[in-house]
Design brief:
571 residues; mainly alpha; single chain; 25 helices; 74% helix; 0% strand
């Protein structure tokens, strides 16, 4: 609900200047300057909540870390792994509502600290249960993973809100602080990738959650120690914040709809434990989001939101089956690459992360001047080609061509990482320029929520596709037959994402990526179908009263309150 200065503080020249300052001053002096400007407590808070929890721990125990090996220990088939991933991805959909909740419902007078402490306890308990309870069921592990994921969402929302608040009036230092945040997350995530292989191979996948429990607990410890430095808010300030929320009913309604969709889909998945229930829930949820976002928002914003959720949903994910194919041992799959845990995570993982930065650089270097439609079409063609390149290793063509599996896997990881950034970057820019002035943070989180819901639905569709093709590897002995239809799954995946982009591209504005597409707060719902449906004209008497009430006069306290009530009632 509060204005976000992020769009003013992170321009490319300022980022380059910040990097130049680091090179000139040295990292130590640069950090001292940041500490002098913002305080070492804020830097420590960002380090623990964003760098360690959302960088290091997320890569250590996430889908790119130890999580697939945990699911393999339960011998979960690839479709079931994708169902579990859909549940975990959907937790990020709650971010917009959580941001509103911290503002509208402070606990004990504090907006952030109590929520961070509660989620820190839940996340730490979840990590310790996975680490210390080898008899924990697969569904029990999923619930623990959800607790950690929710802590990461809460930490991201609250920490980002805190440092954006501290930047108010100090935007000239925004590039330095944003550089500290972004590069810290990338560096910590890279370290998480590197250590995953030795930990999982040496001590088993559950040991990774024992390590992740440390930053999860440190978050609560720093919060109790007062590192948020937030002041208690009184009842009057809370009432003003709630009045501001009531002035944007569309934003509140859409946040609640995203939250309700997350609860609905996850309840179906956990209650009935069937692929049919999972995919039915997501199809219903996506339909609801398309309808309500379509009728409630400004048509320019609504079209992009609809494209985001549908395109992400149809970019089907079958990575769980590909993971089993690449890492199965010779006893599980005779003609496979048989990649070791250390190579897959500690070599391939860092390469994937480094080439994500290359993808961002090449986008800014060569594509940033293209209009949105051209970028999306070209990047999706490149992404589809990279996906189809997976057929080379799945069909073992690379061996016949004399290319070692390890070399081809690294090339494939680099290309997939770059093209993924090319497909994501235009939406990050587009979301920013679609956010009306004064509502950047709230509207951006809503648009990002549609993307997160689409990603969850993509996992669900991938699970359905693999199950339909009887591609159900689970890390068991002699499962060669389970991979017979994996090439067909890869072809369908590549074609669906590309065709979805081409069919839905009219929803994307043809504007260049350097112009703002939304202006005032009122444009959130201006010209929406819902606003036109309920648009009414005041009666002549009401119009005369409203006109008279707007004439300049001098009011006392009681008269001013009466005038405000009259205007609210007439409006």
């Amino acid at each position: 609900l509060r204005p976000n200065s992020a769009s003013r503080m992170a321009s490319r020249p300022n980022r380059e200047a910040a990097l130049a300052d680091i090179c000139t001053m040295g990292l130590s002096d640069w950090l001292k300057r940041l500490s002098g400007q913002f305080g070492w407590r804020l830097l420590a808070l960002i380090f623990v909540l964003l760098h360690l929890l959302n960088g290091f721990a997320r890569n250590l125990v996430g889908p790119a870390g130890a999580m697939p090996y945990l699911f393999r220990s339960y011998q979960l088939p690839a479709p079931d792994v994708l169902v579990y991933n859909s549940v975990l991805h959907s937790i990020w959909v709650v971010a917009p509502l959580f941001a509103l909740l911290t503002d509208l419902l402070p606990l004990g007078g504090y907006r952030k600290s109590p929520y961070i402490i509660i989620t820190s306890v839940l996340g730490t308990v979840g990590c310790l249960l996975i680490f210390a309870e080898p008899e924990l069921s697969a569904k029990g592990s999923l619930i623990c993973l959800v607790l950690l994921q929710f802590q990461q969402v809460a930490a991201t929302v609250c920490c980002t809100g805190t440092y954006v608040q501290r930047l108010q009036g100090q935007e000239e230092y925004g590039a330095d602080l944003q550089t500290y945040v972004s590069f810290g997350i990338e560096a910590a995530g890279l370290l998480g990738n590197i250590v995953t292989g030795p930990i999982v191979q040496g001590m088993g996948p559950r040991a990774a959650w024992g390590v992740a429990a440390l930053p999860a607990a440190a978050v609560g410890s720093l919060t109790v120690s007062g590192y948020f430095e937030e002041r208690a808010v009184d009842g009057a300030e809370t009432r003003r914040t709630r009045q501001a929320a009531c002035a944007q009913p569309v934003v509140v309604m859409l946040s609640l709809i995203l939250f309700a969709c997350m609860i609905f889909t996850n309840t179906l998945t956990l209650r009935y434990a069937s692929l049919f229930a999972n995919i039915s829930g997501y199809l219903i949820a996506v339909s609801v989001v398309v309808v309500f976002f379509g009728i409630s928002l400004n048509p320019k914003i609504a079209q992009v939101a609809i494209f985001s959720v549908l395109w992400n949903m149809l970019s089907i994910n079958v990575d769980s089956a590909l993971f089993y194919f690449l890492t199965d041992t010779d006893k599980m799959l005779k003609e496979g690459p048989h990649l070791s845990i250390v190579f897959y995570n500690s070599v391939r993982g860092p390469v994937y992360g480094l080439f994500a930065l290359v993808g961002i650089y090449t986008y800014n270097r060569y594509m940033k001047g293209w209009n949105y439609r051209k970028v999306i079409v070209v990047s999706n063609v490149a992404s589809a080609a990279t996906t189809l390149a997976s057929l080379i290793i799945v069909t073992r063509l690379n061996v016949r061509m004399g290319i070692p599996d390890t070399v081809f896997v690294l090339i494939l990881a680099a290309c997939r990482s770059m093209t993924l950034q090319w497909t994501r970057m235009p939406f990050r820019v587009l979301f920013m320029y679609l956010c009306p002035l004064g509502m950047e943070a709230t509207m951006y989180s809503l648009l990002k929520g549609t993307s997160d819901l689409g990603n969850s639905a993509s996992d669900s569709l991938g699970a359905f596709l693999l199950d339909y093709l009887r591609c159900r590897p689970s890390g068991t002995l002699a499962e060669d037959a389970a991979f017979e239809n994996l090439p067909m799954a890869i072809i369908v995946t590549a074609c669906c994402g590309l065709f979805a982009a081409l069919l839905l591209i009219p929803l994307i504005p043809g504007a260049p990526p350097n112009c703002r597409l939304a202006g005032k707060d009122a444009e959130v719902a201006q010209n929406s179908l819902l606003s036109r449906l309920f648009e009414t004209s005041p009666t002549p008497v009401a119009g005369k009263l409203l006109q008279d009430s707007q004439k300049p006069r001098t009011y006392g306290v009681l008269d001013q309150q009466g005038r405000t009530s009259l205007e609210d009632g007439l409006k």
